[in-house]
Design a protein that fits this description.
Elements: H1 3-18, E1 26-29, E2 46-47, H2 50-56, E3 62-65, E4 70-71, E5 76-78, E6 84-91, E7 96-99, E8 112-115, E9 132-137, E10 143-145, E11 147-150, E12 169-171, E13 176-178, E14 181-183, E15 186-187, E16 194-196, E17 202-204, E18 207-209, E19 212-213, E20 220-221, E21 224-226, E22 229-231, E23 234-235, E24 242-243, E25 251-254, E26 257-259, E27 262-263, E28 278-280, E29 285-289, E30 292-294, E31 305-307, E32 310-314, E33 317-319, E34 322-323, E35 329-331, E36 335-337, E37 340-342, E38 345-346, E39 353-359, E40 362-364, E41 373-379, E42 382-384, E43 394-399, E44 402-403, H3 406-409
Parallel strand pairs: 1-2, 1-3, 3-7, 4-8, 6-9, 7-10, 8-11, 9-12, 10-13, 11-14, 12-16, 13-17, 14-18, 15-19, 16-20, 17-21, 18-22, 19-23, 20-24, 21-25, 22-26, 23-27, 24-28, 25-29, 26-30, 28-31, 29-32, 30-33, 31-35, 32-36, 33-37, 34-38, 35-39, 36-39, 37-40, 39-41, 40-42, 41-43, 42-44
Antiparallel strand pairs: 5-6
Length: 413
């Protein structure tokens, strides 16, 4: 290296230090301890245990996991979070944790895996002292990209927020998670797949599937979701797929598929057990945009969506959902806009909508029991073949609305 280049490099380092900037470092992890770079230059040092690479990483670093790598050893035990064991502890560092390719394609061998541990897998016990969760982050700016996060769990009891929450990912920051699969995870309390308390991490192009929560949010608790699939998750209390977290945040689900999620409690009484697909029970503002909500079930309220405040679903399709009240939607001051509701059912009033309003919506093939809309308003809507019709069917107000089944029309007031 010539003298001029060496001096330029030295001056750059001095200038960065003068303004308090830390130069970021790429750190590499592979099962073999070797990493082949695309060029023929120097090959980087490489870790074999993810926890070691994360412990060594500094502010702004990127930790790369070789495609096909499985992180199933190494644990950080968080004493302030009910002694929660975590496979990937990002701490208070502005880190990026990613796979080599940056996306998951298991058939092509793309993506890396963070694999946790159930408390006693042989006995089928997920949560407990020996359980290992997936990722824990606590700083805005952290990113997780192109990973499979699977078979993770939390302790079975504790009092700290985050200790028994978030089996797959627990975020106490506005982190960004992209191109990831979060599956087969469980928590004792909230967020079987992913958890956020009072922040708004963003999940982009992710698959969140087959996760379980002992209380709220089988797939996810809090956060915003874009271009993602949330399916086959379950919770004991509310939000089989997703549950909101804070009263002062706007929760967004955009261009997502929310399917086959379920509130698992079979009790008929009580005001809980809300939202088989999505439960917005705490936030006064929530928005579901351009999404499909299909085949979700709640024993009590809101098979597809439950929204206690001004929760809206816009340009959506809600189909084949079921609840005791509000098969498709059970709401408050919000409602459905430019949305198709079809083949939903309930055992009591409001198979399509129980409270709330409809704007420019199409209802069709709504179940015979508890038909149609109860205690709601309809503006510029069309109702087709909503079978049945009884005193349980009631629309408080309707303007420019078309009814194509006589028995439905007769019970509007």
């Amino acid at each position: 290296m010539n003298t001029r280049v060496m001096m330029g490099h030295a001056l750059a380092v001095i200038a960065a230090s003068a303004v308090g900037t830390v130069l970021a470092t790429d750190r590499y992890v592979s099962s073999s301890g070797a990493w082949t770079m695309p060029d023929a230059g120097d090959q980087p040092a490489c870790y074999t245990v993810l926890a070691d690479a994360l412990a060594a990483a500094g502010e702004g670093d990127t930790v790369w996991l070789q495609d096909g790598f499985v992180a199933d050893t190494g644990v950080a035990t968080l004493s302030k979070y009910d002694n929660k064991n975590v496979r990937a502890y990002l701490e208070d560092k502005n880190l990026t944790l990613r796979s080599e390719s940056g996306f998951v394609d298991e058939a092509a061998g793309k993506g890396a895996t963070i694999r946790g541990r159930y408390h006693d897998a042989a006995a089928g016990v997920t949560n407990g002292a020996d359980a290992v969760s997936g990722v824990f982050g606590a700083l805005a700016g952290q990113r997780v990209v192109g990973l499979i996060i699977e078979n993770c769990a939390t302790p079975s009891s504790g009092s700290s927020v985050g200790g028994t929450d978030g089996g797959g990912i627990c975020s106490r920051s506005d982190m960004v998670v992209e191109n990831c699969v979060i599956r087969n995870c469980a928590c004792a309390r909230n967020g079987g797949g992913v958890f956020a308390n009072s922040e708004q991490p963003r999940y982009v192009n992710c698959v969140i599937t087959n996760n379980y929560a002992g209380q709220y949010g089988g797939g996810g608790y809090g956060a915003c979701y874009y271009d993602s699939t949330i399916g086959w998750n379950g919770s004991v209390n509310s939000g089989g797929g997703l549950f909101d977290c804070a009263k002062d945040l706007v929760h967004v689900v955009s261009n997502c598929l929310v399917t086959c999620n379920r509130v698992l409690t079979e009790e008929d009484e009580g005001s809980a057990y809300l939202g088989g697909g999505i439960a917005y029970a705490r936030s006064p503002r929530s928005l579901i945009i351009d999404s499909r909500i299909v085949g979700n079930v709640s024993r009590r309220n809101g098979g597809g969506v439950y929204a206690s405040g001004a929760g809206y679903a816009v340009d959506c399709v809600i189909s084949n959902c079921y609840a005791a009240r509000g098969g498709a939607y059970n709401g408050g001051s919000g409602g459905l806009v430019n949305t198709i509701v079809e083949s939903c059912g309930s055992t009591s009033p409001g198979a399509g909508l129980y409270k709330g309003s409809l704007w420019n919506c199409l209802f069709r093939n709504i179940g015979a029991t508890g038909t149609g809309v109860y205690d709601g308003n309809a503006y510029n809507c069309t109702f087709q073949t909503s079978a049945g019709g009884s005193s349980s069917t009631a629309i408080a107000k309707c303007w420019n609305t078309v009814f194509e089944l006589d028995s439905f029309w007769k019970n509007v007031y």
